[in-house]
Write a structure and sequence with these properties.
Elements: H1 7-15, H2 28-38, H3 41-48, H4 55-65, E1 67-69, E2 84-86, E3 89-91, E4 95-97, H5 110-121, E5 125-127, H6 135-142, E6 147-151, H7 157-169, E7 175-178, H8 188-193, H9 205-208, H10 211-215, H11 225-236, H12 246-252, E8 257-262, H13 265-273, E9 278-281, H14 295-306, E10 311-315, H15 321-329, E11 334-337, H16 339-371, E12 384-386
Parallel strand pairs: 4-11, 5-6, 6-7, 7-8, 8-9, 9-10, 10-11
Antiparallel strand pairs: 1-12, 2-3
Bound molecules: flavin mononucleotide (FMN) and 2-Ketohexanoic acid.
Organism: Prauserella cavernicola
InterPro entries: Aldolase_TIM, Alpha-hydoxy_acid_DH_FMN, FMN-dep_DH, FMN_HAD, FMN_hydac_DH_AS, LMO_FMN
Domain FMN hydroxy acid dehydrogenase: 20-387
Length: 387
């Protein structure tokens, strides 16, 4: 197990392609700057953008900086095993690819490229309902790789049931239900460019390939795109359902379910009361409520509230191996990574995503070893100090 991921460091040195030379940088900030040059300005703003002033997106990063690792010496951490099981899925390391919609605006290979890169490393993709590739096509690209499905919850029960049964059929094992985006937040960069990919029919592959959704339309999406898009948007927006409605999902999904976008311990308790298997502590990467609390800042209290009843996953702001260690030490079962691999996709499709994931895993592996930790279970709050 030693160097299972750390070996990528040697590979880079030996081939002499570190820094900003080809193929790609290993630094998250430079990666984003380079992606900005490669992507169209609208697509870049959409991916990088945040709600409002960007206060929550910045707070997500600042929260990591308030915790520091305390490395331990002579612990014999040369042999390391980062493996873990998350919502029933055995993983080589507790890292998943966060659900990210409309990947066609980033690269022509879109979700297929991402699925292949993730599968090569044994990390799960969480396929977005707002995908630009269908459930079945991504399953095919993912092959034997682990895959989960993220639901934007249609208020038409038959449409919802149809999408869920397609995902189960196609081998997606866990369901992530996103609750924090029942309407899009105020996002100035997209408003200023007047850019919303959905209105151009991007990110519609899941509903448009669904027979039940199609049966709800007067005209097929191929004949009347705007009406089909608006019909779908009207189905997934609104907050007419309450906690009771989770019973419907429990009935229609026989695998684990996690609720994404949880930020209050009482909501986490309600998730546990409703028979959910997990929550994802997340503020959607600062894309929804501007001024919302940093995701990492609420993680400990949510773990304290429900950590013994369900699995607590985490996202928003993870960029480095040390960030992963900090989130796991504060009680996360696993972390989801968002924007960085999307920038990798912009750089080089499947290779770019793989590079970003391998870089993060190598950094995580080295940070674990150099801090004196061999296993994920050794990460507890005791390995951190407040800065
Ligand atoms: C371009 C983009 C699209 C996203 N699309 C979705 C989505 O379709 N469903 C969802 O649950 N979250 C979506 N998210 C949120 C991510 O799943 C995740 O919560 C967030 O990106 C994590 O923060 P990070 O980017 O700082 O790592 C999206 C994020 C970005 C940047
Ligand atoms: C319906 C919104 C899908 C994309 C998304 O979640 C985001 O842009 O943050």
């Amino acid at each position: 197990m030693a160097g299972q991921f750390a070996g990528y460091q040697n590979e880079i040195y030996l081939q002499g392609y570190g820094g900003t030379a080809p193929p790609f940088t290993t630094d998250a900030t430079r990666l984003e700057a380079a992606a900005a040059e490669l992507m169209g300005p609208e697509a870049y703003s959409y991916v990088a953008g945040a709600a409002g002033s960007g206060a929550t997106a910045s707070a997500n990063r600042a929260a990591f900086d308030r915790w520091r690792l305390v490395p331990r010496m002579l612990t014999d951490a040369t042999e390391r095993d980062l493996s873990s099981t998350v919502l029933g899925t055995p993983l080589p390391a507790p890292v998943l690819l966060a659900p990210v919609g409309v990947q066609s605006i980033v690269h022509a290979d879109a979700e297929r490229a991402t699925a292949r890169a993730a599968a090569a490393l044994g990390l799960p993709v969480v396929l977005s309902t707002a995908s630009s590739t269908s459930i079945e096509d991504v399953a095919e690209a993912s092959g034997d790789g682990p895959r989960w499905f993220q639901l934007y919850w249609p208020n038409d029960p038959d449409v919802c049931g149809s999408i869920l049964s397609r995902a189960r059929e196609a081998g997606y094992t866990a369901l992530v239900v996103t609750l924090d985006t029942w309407t899009l937040a105020w996002r100035p960069s997209d408003l200023d460019s007047g850019y919303l990919p959905f209105l151009q029919g991007e990110g519609m592959a899941v509903p448009f390939s669904d027979p039940v959704f199609r049966s709800r339309l007067d005209k097929a999406p191929e004949d009347d795109l705007p009406s089909a898009v608006l019909r779908w948007i009207s189905m997934i927006t609104g907050t007419d359902r309450g906690w009771d409605a989770l019973a419907f999902l429990r009935e229609h999904w026989d695998g684990p379910i996690a609720l994404k976008g949880i930020q209050h311990p009482d909501d986490a308790r309600r998730a546990a009361d409703a028979g959910m298997d997990g929550v994802v502590v997340s503020n959607h990467g600062g894309r929804q409520v501007d001024g919302a609390v940093a995701s990492l800042d609420v993680l400990p209290e949510i773990v304290a509230a429900v950590g013994d009843r369900l699995e607590v996953l985490f996202d928003s702001g993870v960029r480095t191996g040390a960030d992963v260690v900090k989130a796991l030490a504060l009680g996360a079962r696993a972390v989801l990574l968002g924007r960085p691999w999307v920038y990798g996709l912009a750089h080089g499709g499947e290779d770019g995503v793989r590079h970003v994931l391998r870089s993060l895993l190598a950094d995580l592996d080295l940070t674990m070893g150099l801090s004196g930790h061999r296993r994920i279970t050794e990460l507890t709050p005791a390995v951190l100090r407040r800065a």
